[in-house]
Amino acid sequence: MFFNRDIEWFKPVELYTHSGRHGRIKQPLGTHGLMKCVFDRPLSVQDSVLMNLYKRVFPKWTYNAETRGKQFCISDEADDTLEEEWSGKKDKKMETMQHARSRAIVLQDFESLLNDLNSRKDKFIGNNYVKCQGGSDNTFDNISFDLSGDKLTDSITTIFSDILLSANNLIQTSQKLFESISMYDEDNEGSSVLETIVEFLPFLQKLEQFVYTTSELTKNLLLQIHGFLTFGRNEIKNHRADQLPLTRMWRTLGELLSTFAVLDALILSHPFLREHWAVLLRSVRLVQFNPAQFDLEGLSTGRLQHLNALIERLDLVLMNGKILTNTCIKLTRFDQLSSDRQFMERFRLAIMQMLTNWEKHINSSENAIPDKKRLICLLTLSKLFHHLLPERQKPDKKIISKLLGINKNLISFHLFADLLFIPFDFILKEIPGASKVVDRKVFSTIEIAKGCQLNKLLENLYKYVQTFSLNLNDWQKRMQDEENGSASDYLKFCDLLIEGIHMGEKLNRLLKYILNIHLAEQKPISKANVRQIFVLIQFVKTISNTFTSNWNFIIEAINYGCVYLSTSILSILQSIIQSNGESKQPFFANSILNSALSLSQPVGRKALIVAGVSLELANYQKTFEEMTSK
């Protein structure tokens, strides 16, 4: 029997002890030798004395006292604490075979499911003869359609709709940029650091242009919101425009700011990108001050200065990880925003109302999924609000305390790639003055919760798997029920589609969170938990397989659902228009009419945005509440 830990150091000779422990030369390195000694029990004092004697006899030898355990691709938690018995090479070989067989059994079901999915998908695609064009395709964005004819209402609707459509395009573009940053240096094949980062410069220039465009659109949207609220106080009669919630506009503003928050997190957390960029900065500055040393005297001074200016600008705009903060600071230059008390109060009320709605959604049911996108949007809006807030009013304690309540429902979540987002850390670091409001007890509570979240998650992992298994089997059975194509069947099937998407979203979030929290805490995944993770992946693939096999009927149901919803909403809007007749609120009536006209067009992204903006301008929530109360 031998102890299951390996101790490696450099020795010129073999080591024997009277108790039977021994070591042998593993690999000769010139006059040195790499010795690997396997002992039957932990090293005793006598062994340490013997090692010290060797160090005295051979003072020039290099000793490496690194201690390490055996590494496995999939390790059991119990195996880390038990000592293995030594029974010779044969037993080791048998153990290796058993380990390989165990892995094969774990992967067998998962592999068969993937093969089955691929074969079904290929067969389905081969028989697919229907080409479907999504409603959000760019061709629909260029379609122009008539509005109410009222110049004031149509102008305001068009301005906000165009800004929101541009924002939607930028937000979609940002996803590709996030992927490119996270994949930096992944395909590096022997290139040097400078070669790798220099090849990345064109992308960084593209990213800089994206940041500039998004920043300008953010500024434009904020000023348009302020301008509309100011204009509506006096120019829009019989319609309290200054009291409109404008939730869609505020949310879009937060989504634009959220792209900067994600970019900052990706850049600051990427070790290779930061390290390579520092090397490039040092190299460019060295060349600039010593061109003769690098035989660059013939190089145009202007070109060298242009390169240096580019590097310095990219470092200032992107690589310092303060894109969001710099954008907020630029917006503080518009004094008309901070000095307008009514506007700042509307801004604060919008944040508070959105926070209340987010919490209501979380508490609506046990299966409710926290909206991560809306949460980051709220946090970035709160940061901008505190930058605009006069110094004597910072921080807004009501907003900070409301934001801290998020930690009761969500400590952290997966953001992008291998990043975990912790709302509490963002509040402390990014929102000016927030650290002055937070109590020390809250600090300790959050830290304890952070330390326990992985263990708590793993304790409930088996329970999650069992719950998902039951729900998935029930959902599959209902999806396989025969349908006769009636209206009720289509509506029922649409509800099933939403339920399946909801289930797949929860599974994806759980998987990403489990894997990334292990990575963040540098903890291995046990064999038992790996098996549960594979089961969760099977569930995701099963949902995907179910959608693929029912794709034709899904298209029919979605088309019917779009028509049904458009018709239902149009009938509601038509009843509102008829009930108002000769309305004393022309802005309200024209906004409702614009919404109805946009929904009567082919379903597309622009039509939906125009309809949403028109309903916001008409204060549809208040209108529908009044209709319901009657």
Description of the structure:
By secondary structure, this protein is mostly helical. Among the domains are: 6-70, no CATH class; 138-142 and 460-476 and 484-629, no CATH class; 183-380, no CATH class. Helix content is 67%, strand content 4%. The protein is built from 24 helices and seven strands. The protein has helices spanning 45-57, 88-126, 138-141, 151-182, 193-199, 201-232, 247-269, 271-289, 301-319, 323-331, 335-338, 341-363, 372-388, 397-404, 423-430, 434-437, 440-459, 461-479, 487-520, 527-549, 551-580, 586-599, 605-617, 620-629; strands at 6-10, 15-16, 22-29, 32-38, 67-68, 413-414, 420-421. A five-stranded antiparallel sheet has the order 2-3-4-1-5, with no helix packed on it. The chain has a two-stranded antiparallel ribbon with strand order 6-7. A hairpin with a 2-residue loop joins β3 and β4 (32-38). The radius of gyration is 32 Å and the shape is globular. 22% of the residues are buried. Mean pLDDT is 77; it is low at 1-41, 62-87 and 120-139. Pfam families: RIBIOP_C (PF04950), WASH-4_N (PF14745). InterPro entries: BMS1_TSR1_C, WASH-4_N, WASH7. Residues 1-59 form the Ribosome biogenesis protein BMS1/TSR1 C-terminal domain. Residues 147-576 form the WASH complex subunit 4 N-terminal domain.
